[in-house]
Write a structure and sequence with these properties.
The protein has 373 residues and is of the alpha/beta class. It has 13 helices and 14 strands.
Amino acid sequence: MSRLTHLFEFKKKVSDEFRNMLSPESKAKAEGDHHSRRKPRPCGMTIHTGVGCSYICTYCYIYDMGFAARPKPYPLKPEEIVYALTLNPYIIPERTLAAYGSVTEPFLPETTGRALVYMRDIYRWLGLPAQVSTKAILEEEILRGIAAGDPKTSILVTAVTLSDRRIEPRAPDPAERIRSAGEASRRGFKVSLFMRPIIHGITDVEAEKILRLAADSGIKSAVLGSLRVTERILRNLGRCGVNIEEIKRRLAKPLSGSRQIEVRSADLKRRIKRIAEDLGFSVFRAACEANVYAHGRRCSICNMGPCNINGRLELVENNDIKDLFEYLNVRYRDVNVAENVIKVTLRGKGDDERLKYIISAATYRRVVLDHLV
């Protein structure tokens, strides 16, 4: 059995172990949950540790998605979330990136316990490279909890303004966030400054001040990200004095109710990137790139890649892919593994999207699929 096939067999054994351990009610909850079937995003598999957030940041889109300002822990027990992930056909142990903190603040009083246990148990059973994004002060309890799971967890600490508290009215003080993140970085945690979203007229104006504080605090890397707006978010930003006419000019598409529209910000990112690099930061283009670097991996899943070309690239031979195809009952005609790309000719139609994803995630290589005609 090849190393690649072993990963899938290991996942099956974990799934069987939890299936035998859980009650019928717990199994039904996990099997019906979206974590059991949802395709990972480019940033990885977003794992919900809670729903809703009390910070009510003006730029946050979760309220347009129907989530409330009264947070609560995610309803699955830790053993149920692990089981759900073992059922997901896209998840590969040790390979699929895990992203915590997408529809809540993971370290609210209501969500911290659940988040830390999820992170610990998912890493224990599946070894998914972890990343968590937060606006919390990284206190000792949180850092101990993170260390109990993936020791290389990529920690993203958000800061988009130091001066305008109207933007994040209930979140912890951003300067204190940065200082606590710097202390964690000095202790060996893999922390990045998360400058997302870049708000025109706010974040770009304060960028140097934010970055200098982060550098002085001990943070070594930064992730830059664009703003996405809905009609509600734009109104909220306008009430805070943001130049919404400039944001409207930068919209990638016309606004449409609660639909999230990206605000073009390539020029702002370039300007902030130059400032950051002059201060000695490593600058990542996306959150997932920070995760990839934190774990010494590489990734070729999306068009932005390959990310971290200096990362470990395991030897993969044609027979490794063929062995995996036999295990997955994939009909193929030809397999050709090169240094950075795998080309496959398939027989018949199948779930190309899933197959392409899992091969790329498992091998860290770009995948080209063709069909025998």
